Amino acid sequence: MHKGFIQTAAIAGALAVMLGAFAAHGLKQILPADLLQTFETAVRYEFYHVFALLATGILYKEFPGRIMTWAGGLFIAGMVLFSGSLYALCYVKYSAMGMNWLGAITPFGGVAFIGGWLLLFWAVWKSK
Q: How many Cβ atoms are within 10 Å of 96's Cβ, its own excluded?
């Protein structure tokens, strides 16, 4: 078990629930539909990867090593870069701050998610 991954997954899961509820009950009335959909995409991908990180933390006991640690780290990086940049993008577009370049960060989060999944596979595959 990798305690840090499980704890991070728990905090990220709680955050995803809070942000999802905020979107459903608070943002629905003030954000345009396209920004609300972007925000909901961020929540959904964060939630998917909460479960990936939780599984990584549990699987670490059976398949410990550097590759599994990197997989978990990439899931965390993906949540921050992908979901975080979308949350920030919604905020700045709503507040008209003109920082649309934040959307350019999102693909790096997607690459981190993909890398995490591939390293999770590799860590399990290479184990004895």
A: 7
Give the tokens for residue 19. Answer: 């942000």
82 DSSP assignment: I
pTM recorded for the entire structure: 0.87
d(CA 81, CA 79) in angstroms, rounded, equals: 6
Comparing 15 with 100, the larger pLDDT belongs to 15
Side chain identity at residue 68, one-letter code: M
Tokens 């507040």 correspond to: 95
Evaluate whether 43 touches 20 at the Cβ level (below 8 Å).
yes
- The helix, strand and coil proportions of the chain, stated in percent and rounded to the nearest 5, come to 85, 0, 15
> How far, in Å, CA of 126 to CA of 128, rounded?
7
